[in-house]
Amino acid sequence: MNKILVVDDERHIRELIKIFLEPEGFRFIEAADGVEALSVLDTEKIDLAIIDILMPKMDGYSLCKEIREYYDLPVLMVTAKSETRDKVAGFDLGADDYLTKPFDPQELVARVKALMRRYEINYSGHIEIGSVRMDRKAYTVTVAGNEPATWPMKEFELLFTLAGSPGRTFSREALIESIWGFDFEGNERTLDVHIGRLRDKLPEGKSGIRIRTIRGVGYRLETAS
């Protein structure tokens, strides 16, 4: 059973998160600030941390930095701050995802599950979906049992991201930030070109997967029926 550490100085927020995560099978440990959270991390095996930014003694930014330096687990920031610069600061320190208060509890659960799945995939370095197998260490893709082919890094990372969460719709902005970074100076056409290359290399009848365009939003990878 996965163990989640929730770090927030507001008790009612911790209780709210607990109410929605425990029925999903997660174990729950709470801390009221970053210092208390580090004490928990020293004694407990934690699988994911949900942390607030504005806390006494040690804020979420400092805690995230400590986690990235000494521990290996995904971090979801949940905070009232919604400005882009705050999100960028969190991601720069190693946060894996960001959710702004007030949040939809169902979205919280979905993001936690996606992070756990993504972390397990990234840790193993392999994805198998349809007739496609990906090896992140070698940046190779094997289709329908053929010889592994080494792919360009951006194409590989784009496919790895989509395949890591099949059925999830990724916005164009999220994909660009994930693959090309926040300081990318190109435009969405670059993403569209790379999606086209993936589709050319992975015909549905051979790969067993499809990359669907979600009009006005982005893209989603699905297994072919």
Please give the structural blueprint.
Blueprint: E1 3-7, H1 11-21, E2 27-31, H2 34-43, E3 48-51, H3 60-70, E4 75-79, H4 84-92, E5 97-100, H5 105-124, E6 126-129, E7 132-135, E8 140-143, E9 149-150, H6 153-164, E10 169-171, H7 172-180, H8 188-201, H9 204-207, E11 209-214, E12 218-223
Parallel strand pairs: 1-2, 1-3, 3-4, 4-5
Antiparallel strand pairs: 6-7, 7-8, 8-9, 10-12, 11-12
Helix pairs in contact: 1-5, 2-3, 6-7, 6-8
Structure overview:
The longest helix has 20 residues, at 105-124. The model has no long low-confidence stretch (mean pLDDT 86). It is elongated and about 55 Å long. The chain has helices at residues 11-21, 34-43, 60-70, 84-92, 105-124, 153-164, 172-180, 188-201, 204-207; strands at 3-7, 27-31, 48-51, 75-79, 97-100, 126-129, 132-135, 140-143, 149-150, 169-171, 209-214, 218-223. The strands form 3 sheets. Strands 2-1-3-4-5 form a 5-stranded parallel beta sheet, with helices on both faces. A 4-stranded antiparallel beta sheet has the order 6-7-8-9. It has a 3-stranded antiparallel beta sheet with strand order 10-12-11. The protein is built from 9 helices and 12 strands. Helix 1 (11-21) crosses helix 5 and helix 2 runs parallel beside helix 3. With 225 residues, the protein is an alpha/beta fold. The protein folds into 2 domains: 3-120, Response regulator (Rossmann fold, 3-Layer(aba) Sandwich), CATH 3.40.50.2300; 125-223, Winged helix-like DNA-binding domain superfamily/Winged helix DNA-binding domain (Arc Repressor Mutant, subunit A, Orthogonal Bundle). 44% of the residues lie in helices and 23% in strands.
